[in-house]
Amino acid sequence: MSALQPSHILFFFTLLMGTITTFSASSWFTAWIGLELNLLSFIPLLATSKSNQYTSESSLKYFLIQALGSALILASAPLSLQTQTMTMIVITLALLLKMGAAPFHFWFPPIVQGITWPQCIMISTIQKIAPMLLLSMSQTNTTSHILMIASLSSAVVGAIGGLNQTLTRKILAYSSINHMAWMLAAIMFNEQMWTIYFLTYTVVSSSVMLILHSYQIFHFNQLSSFNMYSKSLTLALFLALLSLGGLPPLTGFFPKWLIIQQFVLSESIVWLSVLLVSALLTLFFYLRIAISSMVFGAPKMKMSMISSPSSILLSVTLINFSPILYPFLGLFLY
């Protein structure tokens, strides 16, 4: 893993600046500039990491997909002279493509497979902020139906796609697609609910990826010796995965609980049923990772391998096992 360089810090700040520009934009042109600044800052962060031979391929794929989404946003401008509805449809489809939501998800798992864990955290969290903000601010009756279809398809694809995977990065990529279904549903209700869900998903998924990054776990086979590092490490990963799956009373359950309440009040039972069944399927392959790390061990290997960083384990355990602190987040968002 390459050391942190000053250029990485510069590009990371310009990446955040692009997201802030999109967030504070007063026109679609300014929002597009923010998206482009975000893209041009993230590509060097991908390309400068030489962790494996697929890094350059992932950078090129990501650039082409994001450039296609930006081109669709620009192409929607002439359509506004004829009909506003068609313009919003094209922009919505372009934003769904840029954030990797189904049915435009095909580029997301291969790119995640070719990058490092810190880059996985960025592409799963920070890179989705700007498109989701634009989606929440550009809702019409027609685009609401598109978001519902995208949410349902993301739930199905994210749940089924991760079942036959043995690569941990692809599993968390399909997990991100499934969580995107819940976030698209939250966008339909209000921005505060989407903010709560997104912040919770960011914290919980980052805790899982940081543990896997600390020990460079990329495949199921590497989990066989995972339980020899420390029992507290195995427990922290177990709690983080269950929290990511939305199992009560862990932190990841509470934003889903809020969305379920809104679904019940709006009587959208079929949509809710699809999301809940998909959540159960994702919980299944989270448990595969957790149980593999706990049960399958090689006793002949030496026990004095790597001492687990206690500060990371303590913070991960507290984050995922302290839901009593979660309601205080509402004081800042409502």
TrEMBL record:
It is found in: Mitochondrion inner membrane. One of its GO terms (molecular function) is NADH dehydrogenase (ubiquinone) activity. It is a multi-pass membrane protein. Residues 25-76, 82-282 form the NADH:quinone oxidoreductase/Mrp antiporter transmembrane domain. GO terms for cellular component: mitochondrial inner membrane. Its EC number is 7.1.1.2. The chain crosses the membrane at residues 9-35, 62-81, 88-108, 145-164, 171-189, 195-212, 233-254, 269-291, 312-333. Keywords: Electron transport, Membrane, Mitochondrion, Mitochondrion inner membrane, NAD, Respiratory chain, Translocase, Transmembrane, Transmembrane helix, Transport, Ubiquinone. One of its GO terms (biological process) is mitochondrial electron transport, NADH to ubiquinone. The keyword Translocase applies. It is an enzyme of class 7 (translocase). It catalyses: a ubiquinone + NADH + 5 H(+)(in) = a ubiquinol + NAD(+) + 4 H(+)(out). Coiled coil: none annotated. InterPro entries: Complex_I_Subunit_2, NADH_UbQ_OxRdtase_chain2, ND/Mrp_TM. Belongs to the complex I subunit 2 family. Core subunit of the mitochondrial membrane respiratory chain NADH dehydrogenase (Complex I) which catalyzes electron transfer from NADH through the respiratory chain, using ubiquinone as an electron acceptor. Essential for the catalytic activity and assembly of complex I. This is NADH-ubiquinone oxidoreductase chain 2. The gene is nad2.
